[in-house]
Design goal:
This protein has helices spanning about 5-10, 90-100, 105-130, 130-145, 155-165, 165-180, 195-200, 210-220, and strands at about 15-20, 25, 35-45, 55-60, 65, 80-90, 150, 185, 190. The chain is α+β, with helices and mostly antiparallel strands and about 220 residues long. It is globular.
Length: about 220
């Protein structure tokens, strides 16, 4: 963001630990804080039906949780901490006052929202056109991007929510990815062993949203 915007924002930020399985926002409920994620992974969950929540978006160190406050709207999705981490938080009213006072900050945040729309549209494409194994590989790469280490603390339950499929399907996909030596899975942990292999296997289902994020945010100044 612009240096002036950063200078006004920085003194208002507070450090906060993000515990796994905690919710940062709930659909239809007013949130009190905006979260600038530093570490960990946040799942955006769609919970509009009676089945298990479905992950429709992922936020990590590249993003924020609480952008709906820009328009003074309630969140339209749940945001749950999938992998524990940390964030810099800001009071909702302070955030809104800063956005109102700075057209450059507003433009920057709207660009970020556009990257989320891109991620959502490409997730929808993968959900229709990719196999379960490709979708799992894609999500593992997205998580790998955001935590910056090869060991991903993910359970079968986590991955079932990520893809919206039964655990049996996750087990089958994991075994096949392990057979190619791209990953190694143990209880509660998935280790990335061959990132390049996963990327090649994903084909067009990974990398497009990431490239568009850099394109959109790279022109934010």
């Amino acid at each position: 963001m612009q240096p002036d915007d950063g200078a006004r924002l920085r003194p208002l930020l507070r450090n906060e630990t993000l515990a796994a399985r905690s919710y940062l926002e709930r659909r239809g409920e007013l949130q009190e804080k905006i979260y600038f994620i530093e570490t960990g992974v946040i799942s955006n969950l769609e919970t509009s039906d009676i089945r298990t929540p479905l992950e429709v978006g992922v936020v990590g160190c590249e993003g924020i949780v609480g952008a709906s406050a820009i328009c003074n709207l309630f969140p339209q999705r749940d945001s749950c901490v999938q992998i524990e981490g940390a964030a810099l938080t800001l009071d909702r009213e302070q955030f809104q006052a800063l956005v109102i006072s700075s057209s450059t900050l507003l433009a920057y945040l709207l660009r970020y929202i556009q990257t989320q729309i891109v991620q959502l549209s490409l997730a929808a494409s993968a959900g229709v056109r990719a196999t379960v194994q490709q979708r799992l590989a894609r999500k593992l790469l997205m998580y790998h991007d955001r935590i910056g280490q090869d060991d991903l603390p993910l359970t079968h339950e986590n991955m079932s929510i990520m893809l919206g499929v039964r655990r049996a399907s996750i087990t089958h996909a994991i075994h096949n990815l392990e057979a190619e030596r791209w990953i190694k899975a143990t209880r509660g942990l998935v280790q990335i062993r061959d990132r390049a292999g996963l990327i090649k296997y994903c084909g067009p289902f990974y990398g497009v949203a990431e490239a568009r994020y850099l394109e959109i945010m790279g022109h934010s100044q």
